[in-house]
């Protein structure tokens, strides 16, 4: 959590957490003087702007924030008996910007006769931990970390969670309704800037400027400068993001592919699953380095065992085709299913699953599952899934009934696909137009699609193309030839 002044310079940082009530909780002093406050989910480049302070208490050093679009699981508040002295507790936060730090300690005292009532504990904290949750052994929030006494020994304190319930009760009763003057957490009181910036601040601001998230105007140069400064000081995320920039994959073209690969290797060594997966694809394809299937397998396996879908897909391809390892169709099926379960949205894993279930590779033939995966790939716009699905409906095979309307819909999308137009779909469309099967009989359209199919290597339809050609007038043929040249130039 980064507090910014009116110039979007950082004036403080802290931690926070989401509750099951839907609010973000932090300390009042973290956001007290900010003009804008940004929140970044730990380990990601997902950045959000605080929309409003819905309730706050300076006395108890607590603020409840509203953040649109923040979709994170909430922590449960411990509302039964509070902690006892010597109970094991855990402090979670971002001390000195070291995000996602989890430290263990015990409750050393319960300070109930002061305001606010506080829990004294021994789990290590540092500046930047403020606002993080203090958890019991059941993972429930018992307090909100607030301060430490510098120079003391384990003199760390958390506001008792009962004060959160007081604020929440005020919201529910209407006593703490959102106040317009708190929209965007605009404050009038100036604050002294912290200098130099902590690693967590640099990382979050670098990501915000690079991506244009968090309400900041995109400034790629500034974002890269911050990330270069923080790389190696705040985990592997800076290396991960910079590698994508320098390789030209995200955030524009960094123009230094060699540096991008160097950073990719560093991030992979630091445990970034996405970098491990991308590195495996480079070793697999030989892009930017020599092909090394052993290294491709090693990095893909590390990524896939962390749940990375791209790493799982690389493993699937290697096991399916016996590339660098012995072919194992059952293993390929497992990895492709993992790849298809995630956020990859190009349909390639779905197409492989369609093929494997249809052909019985690593599994008995299963037309129902083949149809399921072909439809899933088609929904993602995968050209070969669209083509195969269209031809299945045209013929009425592999567990589907003939349906010319569906066939023509899928085939048209495959034939005119923006990046991977499918010659088999083009040829089938040509047949449909020539014979008036599922589409109005149209010799010109038949000539158009059959000509494109032949131009794309579908030689077996040349005889059918001659039939369509013979039916055209010279004028219609000239008109279609012009459209064909335009289509081929575009694709």
Describe this structure in words.
With 491 residues, the protein is of the alpha+beta class. It has four domains: 2-182, Thrombin, subunit H, CATH 2.40.10; 196-261, no CATH class; 271-380, Serine Threonine Protein Phosphatase 5, Tetratricopeptide repeat (Alpha Horseshoe); 404-491. It is built from 18 helices and 14 strands. The strands form three sheets. Strands 9-10-11-14-13-12 form a six-stranded antiparallel barrel.
Terminal CA distance reads 47 Å
Q: What is the C-alpha radius of gyration, as a whole number of Å?
A: 30 Å
Oligomeric nature of the chains: single chain
| Proportion of residues in β-strands | 5-15%
Q: Averaging pLDDT over every residue, what do you get? A: 87
CATH topology of the largest domain: Thrombin, subunit H
State the CATH class of the largest domain.
Mainly Beta
The CATH level-2 architecture of the largest domain is identified as: Beta Barrel
- Major beta sheet, strand line-up: 9-10-11-14-13-12
Helical/strand content category = alpha+beta
Structural domains: how many: 4
- Major β-sheet profile: 6 strands, antiparallel, barrel
State the helix count.
18
Helix content, binned percent = 40-55%
């Amino acid at each position: 959590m980064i507090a910014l002044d009116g110039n979007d310079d950082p004036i403080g940082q802290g931690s926070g957490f989401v509750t099951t009530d839907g609010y973000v909780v932090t300390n009042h002093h973290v956001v007290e003087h900010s003009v804008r406050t940004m929140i970044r989910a730990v380990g990601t480049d997902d950045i959000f702007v605080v929309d409003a302070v819905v309730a706050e208490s300076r006395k108890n050093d607590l603020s409840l924030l509203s953040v649109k679009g923040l979709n994170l699981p909430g922590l449960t508040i411990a509302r039964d008996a509070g902690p006892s002295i010597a109970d094991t507790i855990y402090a979670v936060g971002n001390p000195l910007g070291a995000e996602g730090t989890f430290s263990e300690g015990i409750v050393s005292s319960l300070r109930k006769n002061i305001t606010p009532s506080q829990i004294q504990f021994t789990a290590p904290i540092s500046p930047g931990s403020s606002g993080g949750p203090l958890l019991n052994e059941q993972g429930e929030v018992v307090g909100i970390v607030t301060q430490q006494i510098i120079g003391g020994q384990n003199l760390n304190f958390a506001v008792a969670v009962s004060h959160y319930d007081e604020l929440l009760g005020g919201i529910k009763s209407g006593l703490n309704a959102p106040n317009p003057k708190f929209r965007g957490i605009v404050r009038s009181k100036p604050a002294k800037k912290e200098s130099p910036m902590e690693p967590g601040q640099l990382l979050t601001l670098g990501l915000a400027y690079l991506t244009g998230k968090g309400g900041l105007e995109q400034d790629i140069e500034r974002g890269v400068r911050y990330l270069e400064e923080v790389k190696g000081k705040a985990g592997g995320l800076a290396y991960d993001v910079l590698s994508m920039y320098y390789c030209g994959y995200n955030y524009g073209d960094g123009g230094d592919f060699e540096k991008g690969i160097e950073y990719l290797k560093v991030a992979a060594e630091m445990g970034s699953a996405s970098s491990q997966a991308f590195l495996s694809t480079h070793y697999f394809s030989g892009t930017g380095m020599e092909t090394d299937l052993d290294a491709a397998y090693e990095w893909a396996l590390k990524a896939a065992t962390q749940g990375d879908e791209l790493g799982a897909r690389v493993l699937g391809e290697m096991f399916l085709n016996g590339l660098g390892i012995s072919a194992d169709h059952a293993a390929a099926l497992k990895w492709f299913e993992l790849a298809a379960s995630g956020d990859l949205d190009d349909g390639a894993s779905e197409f492989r699953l369609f093929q494997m279930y249809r052909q019985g590779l690593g599994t008995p033939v299963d037309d129902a599952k083949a149809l399921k995966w072909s439809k899933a790939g088609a929904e993602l716009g995968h050209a070969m899934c669209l083509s195969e699905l269209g031809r299945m409906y045209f013929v009425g095979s592999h567990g589907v009934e003939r349906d010319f309307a569906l066939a023509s819909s899928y085939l048209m999308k495959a034939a005119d696909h923006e990046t991977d137009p499918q010659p088999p779909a083009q040829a089938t469309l040509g047949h449909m137009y020539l014979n008036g099967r599922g589409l109005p009989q149209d010799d010109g359209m038949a000539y158009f699609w059959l000509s494109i199919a032949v131009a794309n290597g579908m030689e077996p339809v040349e005889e059918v193309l001659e039939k369509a050609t013979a039916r055209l007038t010279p004028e219609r043929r000239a008109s279609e030839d012009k459209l064909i040249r335009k289509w081929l130039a575009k694709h």
